[in-house]
Write a structure and sequence with these properties.
globular; alpha+beta; 2 strands; 2 domains; 83 residues
Length: 83
Amino acid sequence: MEGDHGNKAFAESLGLDYPILSDPERKVARAYGVVSGDRKNASRWTFYIGKDGKILFIDKGVKPGSHGEEVAAKLKALGVPSR
């Protein structure tokens, strides 16, 4: 799919080692409960998902200005090794 290729290229351009999701039909957003009904925008939540696919933690208090530091701290607290 073209969108998947674009997301992969975008992730690679940022040096990321994880996929970026595009969800224009909001199917995944609905499955994770971040959007419901006719609501147009999803809630800003961060899901920390282990390599086994299990959700380790859900952060429902995302603050865009400081979230990068918060993500790094939470990953460390969850025992995810840094590079």
